Amino acid sequence: MANATAAKASSIPPRFIRFMDAPGYLGMCRDEFNKTVRPNVREFPIGKQGVAFDRIELDEWTDAYIESKSIEKAAKQDNNRPRSERQGESQGGNPWREKRSPVSIRKVESGKSTKCSEVNDFEKALALVTGKKPSST
How many angstroms separate the CA atoms of 24 and 36, rounded? Predict the structure, then answer.
C-alpha cells in the first residue's frame, strides 16, 4: 500500500504495472486481457507471487493493435441532413423555401352567434343544472 500511495502522490507514472491493474490500464476485462494482450507482451515476476508488465511495452502493443484493427472512415461522412427548412446559400439553394398558405373562402366575423338552436340548447342545459328538481309526490 505504501508504494501505491507514493505512486499516486508523484506525477511520474509507474513503469511496472501489476497483473491485477493491467486490464484496467488498457480499459478491458481480465478475460479479454488474458486472451488478447497477455500472449503478446512479456511478463516478469515481482516479489514472491506478483506478476507485472512493462507499461511502455503495453503502450506499444496498444498502438500496434489500434493500427491493425482500426476502421478507416470517409473524410466527410454527413448522414445528418439539416433539420431546418432553411437551405444555406453556400449550397446554392434559396435561404428559405417559399410556403404558400391556404386561402380561406369563408368570411369570418366577430360578434354574437345567430344560431337559435345553440342558444336554446344552452338555456335548456343550464335550467336542468341550476333549476329545482321536480318533487316525486
Answer: 14
Provide the terminal-to-terminal Cα distance of the chain, rounded to the nearest Å: 96
Query: CA 51, 57, 59 angle in degrees (round to 5)?
Result: 115
Q: Contact, 17 vs 4, CB < 8 A? A: no
Quickly list DSSP for 7-68. HHHSSSPPSEEETTTHHHHHTS-HHHIIIIIGGGS-EEEETTTEEEEEHHHHHHHHHHHHHH
Per-residue pLDDT for 6 more than 70? no
Q: Would the CA dihedral through 67, 68, 70, 73 be positive or negative?
A: positive
CA-angle at 112, arms to 108 and 116, nearest 5°:
110
Give me the residues paired with residue 44 across strands. 52
Query: What's the pLDDT at 11?
Result: 87
52-82 pLDDT, tens per residue? 999 999 999 999 999 998 888 777 666 666 6
Whether the predicted pLDDT of 37 surpasses 60 = yes
